[in-house]
């Protein structure tokens, strides 16, 4: 089985619609794909309706968190999307995205970059607006050559000249909310140092004690040394090890299935979850 547990659609900052995402996942030879848009489950229904036969969808979300001043992301799988407390928190985070993006546009204007809110809004196309949409606007304007090049201290990285903080959930609270909604919680790309400061291993140990289920080890933002360290840490803490592409369509160069999750780990995620179930494809529409 080929299992990719971290993908994005136009419901947040990917460029594939949810329907295109699942069709492309099947074409890439995946057996299982997770839709984990940022702080939203809005794309799930479309993805389920379009599921090709032979492909299974894992409904999920990537939750925006912050601990001790460090931004981090928590992958939540198979939770009840209507559970009130987790739903309210996702909406709170999502609602703060628009004023934050507008504020980043204002900072860029002050730096002499002629980006407009209308441009960012067009790029987001109704998705959960975020820094990648602002970064895409910078690419359109020729300010930077790629989206990744916008995530530097010069522009949009944490603490960068045009960076603006947004509401982010305390990860200990996020884990509690996910577990209470019957879900499984995995720390996304914990050693992605090129994105900015990372959470120390001591905090990961505290998160594990608070109910964290796993860490995403096999990710293109992790080199071989980082993967080895994380694998050892996961073994020490009794955490599951996942692998994923973190696919965003054409917004990033990564392809579906470039990193994958072991089928036994996937089986354990399913076993632990009580809020929702994987959805097998029946041919789509």
Distance between the termini: 24 Å
Structural class: alpha/beta
The tally of helices reads 11
* Share of β-strand residues: 15-25%
Helix content: 25-40%
Order of helices and strands: EHEHEEHHHHHHEHEHEHE
On the 0 to 100 scale, the average pLDDT is 95
Unreliable parts: none
Radius of gyration: 18 Å
The description of the largest β-sheet is:
8 strands, mixed
Shape: globular
How many strand segments?
8
SSE order and pairing:
Blueprint lengths: L2 E5 L10 H10 L4 E4 L8 H6 L6 E12 L2 E8 L6 H12 L1 H14 L6 H8 L6 H10 L6 H4 L20 H10 L3 E4 L13 H9 L4 E5 L5 H14 L2 E4 L19 H10 L6 E2 L5
Helix pairs in contact: 5-6
Task: Spell out the key features of this protein.
single chain, 285 residues, alpha/beta, 8-stranded mixed beta sheet, globular
If you had to describe this structure to a student in words, what would you say it looks like?
This protein is an alpha/beta fold. Helices cover about 40% and strands about 15% of the residues. The protein has eleven helices and eight strands. Strands 1, 2, 3, 4, 5, 6, 7 and 8 form an eight-stranded mixed sheet that branches.
Please give a quick description of this structure:
The protein is α/β, with parallel strands linked by helices and 285 residues long. It is built from eleven helices and eight strands.
